[in-house]
Known about the structure:
It contains no helices and eight strands. It has strands at about 10, 15-25, 35-45, 50, 55-60, 60-70, 75-85, 90-100. The strands form two sheets. It has a four-stranded mixed sheet with strand order 1-8-7-3, with no helix packed on it. Strands 2, 4, 5 and 6 form a four-stranded antiparallel sheet that branches. The termini are far apart. The model has no long low-confidence stretch (mean pLDDT about 95).
Amino acid sequence: MSATRKVPTLQKAPAEQFAIGLKYESPDLDEGQRIVSCTVSISPSGAGALEVDGGPVIETDIVSQMIKGGTHGEDYYVKFLSVTSIGHIYEDSIFVRVRNIE
């Protein structure tokens, strides 16, 4: 992600299940630094809402999370709270629109 953060948007069907994620780069993540932990949450939550499947996956400068479900016509924010090897904390979101395939 960059210093000017924009919220990425994607669309999925309720039956789809796939990973979404973020790639961190300079100036957020400098040479030799890495992401060491990540927590993922989704809002809104509740019955029939978009869900995480398993835990987040961290690959040095990339964090990803498998998502599934969701209710047609609903929109969700998938929030990533990532911590770097030097203690920087980043909070980023991906906006997910759930729509049936027509």
